[in-house]
């Protein structure tokens, strides 16, 4: 009986192909846009999540210089008001795990006939632990390299590509600002940072070497930044307060005066970035859902027309023994078949579209089974919901009036 | 006394119209035994179709009693009425009322869909009946590909497919020429001879002669009810009014 009714639904749809197609189109566009938008939105979420994971967890960065931008003050991170001793003192605070002082600048790097301008970061091996940054090849500089300020370097993937090409860089000598450096290791791919910088376009050298030989025009021991990792997410608030208190005291900053340093909670920044993309992704989904709703209303509209057109048929069916439930099921099935087929086509188009977006813009897209299932369930419920009223209208018809309808 | 197949007592039917209520059936009393062949006659608008629709459980009387096989119809819900239309009664209409998109086979088999018969049995039974009404060659045709007389045969086959006790035919020959009408009436007579009870509405007395009993409606009342054993008597009754 059910299969007979499915067959009839199919037949009824075939009787007016153009109209069936147009009705379906509403569904196709609705489902297609939901799938596409969810894929793009989830893709954005996913890439933010990856950036956050690559960043490391529970992080603060302490920047030298004032946080206020007025007057002739230099911006954050420019003046070198922080010192290695500040970093060591922070390391003694409760709740603080790893601490890495950082000095940085830009320099020209040369290998053979190739040269490349990149960022040079002087820091300690701890920095790599904080960032959860492994090496692809080679090894990290040692404590004795730090003490004696040896000229050794860890180089990022982008730098390798630009000055080495296919040559294995390990053990080779490069020149940074004319100084020869031996390449100790190659850093693993880190990708983009949250603010869109290429994190692989960098060279990491021991802090001492950087201060004395490359960025050495500052007084000894000063650093631009200190990266601090709290032991747990719960400890972050306390650690932030303690760093502020400690540095105020060490830098002799009076009550009410401007700080000459600036503590930033990187994890909070990352979380708000994640929150923003989540909101955007939800918004996209919501907008797309509206088109699904419009598609559903289209189905209801056509089903109402169809019920009216087929009034006489309904009368005939009732006269030969169709129950109310049979008529209801018949029209409901028709609406569901239309929306489910529309949904399948929409899924196909949405997924194809998402892949196209990925190809053309390199934007990450994520097509999860979860979003496909949601789209399918929503489409089926749209069919049932918007098909129900017309179907009930058909089922409640008076057989005599239906038979007399011309 | 054997129980009547159809028993109607003091039946009234009102319609609400813009001009107020009109009474279409008044104090109708009627009974019919199984195996009978009744012709209902009367002028247009006298309430024949209304009466047939009530007998066929498509419509409900305003008041009065109607029992089929001794079961009062008024007590039944929609699904039970649908079951009666599906299994006890077969309807044949003036306008054939076939589904235009469905093949003749599917049209005839349709009532069986609503009684849950399997597909192979549906097709088998529909085929047998189409052969019986002489349309075995056309089972895959569509209704608009055959003549009116043939369409009415299909409609009769559809009415028969669930082996009903009673066929209700409302002017089944109204749209047909006299030769085709005779063929259709011969089919009804044959069915009656097989034991199926028939109530048939017609305007024409020569059509009514095929029945064993003639009932005449006028202004919503039965004004004449003649039973005749022989053709002569039937003819006599036919000219009485
Ligand atoms: N649904 C209806 N609403 C109002 N009046 C109706 C309706 N159906 C039938 N009638 C009226 O009832 C009367 C009897 O109709 P009907 O039973 O069809 O007569 P017949 O079949 O004998 O020609 C007619 O006057 C007709 O106009
Ligand atoms: Mg009539």
Query: Main beta sheet of chain A: strand number and arrangement?
Result: 6 strands, mixed, barrel
Q: What's the gyration radius of chain A in Å?
A: 33 Å
**How many structural units, i.e. domains of chain A?**
2
Strand content of chain A: 15-25%
Helix and strand content put the structural class of chain A at: alpha+beta
Percent helix among the residues of chain B? 25-40%
What is the topology, as strand order, of the major beta sheet of chain A?
3-4-9-6-8-7
- Low-pLDDT ranges of chain A: 67-75
The CATH architecture of chain B is 3-Layer(aba) Sandwich
- What is the approximate shape of chain A? elongated
**What is the element string of chain A, with H for helices and E for strands?**
HHEEHEEHEHEHEEEHEEHEHHHHH
| Chain oligomer state | heterodimer
Give the end-to-end Cα distance of chain A, rounded to a whole number of Å. 29 Å
Distance between the ends of chain B: 32 Å
What would your notes on this structure say?
The complex is a heterodimer of chains A (406) and B (241). With 406 residues, chain A is an alpha+beta fold. Chain A folds into two domains: 2-52 and 272-404, no CATH class; 80-259, no CATH class. Helix content of chain A is 56%, strand content 18%. In chain A, the strands form two sheets. Chain A has a six-stranded mixed β-barrel with strand order 3-4-9-6-8-7. In chain A, strands 2-10 form a two-stranded antiparallel ribbon. In chain A, strand 7 and strand 8 form a beta hairpin. Chain A is elongated, with a radius of gyration of 33 Å. Chain B has one domain (6-235): Rossmann fold. Chain B is built from eight helices and ten strands. Chain B has a six-stranded mixed beta sheet with strand order 6-7-8-3-9-10, with helices on both faces. In chain B, strands 2-1-4-5 form a four-stranded antiparallel beta sheet, with helices on one face. The complex binds adenosine-5'-diphosphate (ADP) and magnesium ion. Magnesium ion binds at residues 48-49 of chain B. Adenosine-5'-diphosphate (ADP) binds next to strand 1 and helix 1 of chain B.
């Amino acid at each position: 009986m059910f299969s007979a009714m499915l067959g009839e639904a199919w037949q009824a749809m075939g009787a007016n192909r153009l109209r069936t197609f147009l009705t379906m189109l509403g569904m196709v566009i609705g489902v297609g846009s939901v799938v596409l938008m969810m894929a793009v939105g989830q893709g954005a979420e996913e890439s933010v999540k990856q950036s956050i994971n690559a960043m490391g967890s529970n992080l603060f960065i302490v920047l030298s210089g004032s946080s206020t931008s007025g007057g002739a003050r230099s911006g954050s991170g420019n003046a070198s008001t922080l010192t290695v001793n500040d970093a060591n003192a922070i390391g003694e605070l409760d709740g603080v795990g790893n601490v890495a002082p950082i000095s940085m600048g830009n320099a020209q790097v040369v290998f053979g006939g190739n040269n490349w301008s990149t960022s040079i970061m002087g820091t300690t091996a701890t920095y790599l632990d904080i960032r959860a940054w492994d090496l692809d090849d080679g090894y990290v500089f040692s404590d004795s390299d730090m003490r004696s300020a040896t000229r050794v370097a860890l180089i990022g993937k982008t730098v390798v590509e630009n000055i080495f090409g296919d040559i294995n860089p390990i053990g080779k000598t490069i020149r940074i600002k004319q100084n020869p450096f031996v390449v100790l290791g190659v850093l693993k791919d880190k990708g983009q940072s949250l603010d869109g910088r290429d994190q692989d376009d960098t060279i990491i050298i021991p802090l001492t070497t950087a201060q004395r030989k490359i960025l050495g025009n500052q007084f000894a021991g000063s650093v631009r930044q200190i990266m601090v990792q709290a032991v747990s997410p719960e400890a972050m608030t306390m650690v932030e307060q303690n760093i502020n208190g400690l540095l105020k005291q060490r830098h002799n900053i009076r009550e009410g005066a401007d700080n000459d340093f600036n503590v930033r909670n990187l994890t909070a920044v990352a979380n708000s970035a994640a929150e923003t993309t989540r909101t955007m992704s939800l918004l996209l989904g919501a907008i797309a859902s509206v088109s699904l709703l419009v598609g559903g209303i289209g189905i209801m509209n056509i089903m109402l027309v169809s019920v009216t057109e087929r009034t006489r048929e309904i009368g005939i069916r009732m006269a030969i023994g169709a129950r109310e439930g049979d008529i209801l099921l018949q029209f409901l099935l028709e609406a569901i078949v239309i929306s489910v087929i529309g949904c399948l086509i929409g899924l196909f188009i949405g997924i194809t579209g998402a892949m196209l977006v990925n190809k053309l813009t390199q934007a990450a897209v994520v097509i999860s089974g979860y979003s496909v299932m949601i789209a399918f369930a929503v489409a089926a419920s749209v069919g049932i919901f918007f098909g129900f009223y017309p179907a009930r209208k058909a089922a409640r018809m008076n057989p005599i009036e239906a038979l007399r309808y011309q | 006394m054997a129980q009547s197949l159809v028993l109607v007592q003091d039946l009234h039917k009102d319609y609400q119209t813009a001009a107020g209520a009109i009474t279409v059936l008044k104090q109708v009393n009627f009974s019919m035994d199984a195996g009978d062949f009744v012709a209902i006659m009367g002028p247009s608008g006298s309430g024949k179709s209304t009466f047939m629709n009530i007998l066929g459980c498509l419509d409900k009387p305003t008041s009065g009693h109607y029992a089929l096989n001794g079961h009062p119809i008024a007590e039944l819900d929609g699904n039970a009425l649908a079951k009666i239309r599906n299994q006890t009664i077969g309807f044949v209409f003036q306008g054939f009322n076939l589904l235009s998109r469905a093949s003749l086979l599917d049209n005839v088999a349709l009532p069986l869909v609503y009684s849950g018969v399997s597909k192979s049995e549906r097709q088998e039974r529909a085929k047998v009946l189409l052969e019986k009404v002489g349309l075995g060659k056309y089972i895959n045709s569509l209704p608009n590909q055959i003549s009116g007389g043939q369409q009415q045969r299909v409609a009769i086959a559809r009415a028969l497919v669930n082996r009903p006790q009673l066929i209700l035919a409302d002017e089944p020959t109204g749209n047909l020429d006299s030769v085709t009408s005779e063929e259709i009436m011969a089919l009804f007579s044959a069915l009656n001879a097989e034991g199926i009870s028939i109530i048939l509405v017609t305007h024409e007395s020569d059509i009514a002669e095929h029945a064993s009993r003639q009932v005449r409606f006028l202004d919503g009342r039965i004004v004449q009810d003649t039973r005749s054993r022989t053709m002569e008597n039937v003819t006599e009754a036919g000219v009485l009014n």
